[in-house]
Amino acid sequence: MAEAESSCSDSRWSLKGATALVTGGTLGIGYAIVEELAGMGATVHTCARTESKLNDRLRDWNAKGFDVRGSVCDVSDRAQREQLIEKVSSGFNGKLNILINNVGTNFSKPTIGYTVADFSTLIATNIESAYHLSQLAHPLLKASGAGSIVFISSVAGVVSTGTGSIYAATKAAMNQITKSLACEWAKDNIRSNCVAPFCIRTPLIEHVIFFLSCS
Ligand SMILES: NC(=O)c1ccc[n+]([C@@H]2O[C@H](COP(=O)([O-])OP(=O)(O)OC[C@H]3O[C@@H](n4cnc5c(N)ncnc54)[C@H](OP(=O)(O)O)[C@@H]3O)[C@@H](O)[C@H]2O)c1
């Protein structure tokens, strides 16, 4: 009985043979997600803007025996998103099981202090990227026969946390997009879920962590 339980549990939690794209995998939450997926046997593609950091991470992961590939991409740029998915498609033979829309950024200001450029940057980085990457990845996720999208949102998309009204709006939009895709793409065997963390000690919030009194 113990043996049966153990083998059932092993196969349930293995991602051997699965493919995944994790945006922003060189630091913070994205880094932890890459490690977890690769540790469970998935082949992972990740991206970030800083080439030197990406190369360091890829070297470390490969030394651990993980199958992690990567490419430089600024996900706030439409053309670069298209190039990213082309790379993923050719590397994974047109099939993707898991898309983790992790990249997000923030700069907190009073609402009347935000500029047009601030608005565009936060919308492009946090929500347009995730929406467009999901659109681009749809045929690959469908072709896998078992697709899954995970959006990394925030509690700031549900309640007011004082982190900035634009950031909060992008995360609230993400929560609703998750629901829309979950219903629209279920017929294609693509699940859509959202994780909404509170404070996680990462470079993104290191400078405000004492102010927020959380860790
Ligand atoms: N940390 C928290 O407490 C917290 C709480 C709630 C939600 N979240 C959410 O969790 C997600 C990850 O946050 P984090 O704290 O792990 O962030 P982080 O520590 O700042 O790491 C961000 C990662 O994304 C990459 N990145 C940033 N902008 C990018 C862009 N335009 N294109 C491509 N890659 C980009 C970064 O590398 P490069 O800089 O080299 O591009 C890095 O690998 C975000 O969506 C954030 O909103 C975080």
TrEMBL record:
Gene3D superfamilies: NAD(P)-binding Rossmann-like Domain. InterPro entries: NAD(P)-bd_dom_sf (IPR036291), Sc_DH/Rdtase_CS (IPR020904), SDR_fam (IPR002347), TR (IPR045000). The keyword ATP-binding does not apply. It comes from the Eukaryota. SUPFAM superfamilies: NAD(P)-binding Rossmann-fold domains (SSF51735). Keywords: NADP, Oxidoreductase. Coiled coil: none annotated. GO terms for molecular function: oxidoreductase activity. Belongs to the short-chain dehydrogenases/reductases (SDR) family. SDR65C subfamily. This is Uncharacterized protein. It comes from Vitis rotundifolia (Muscadine grape).
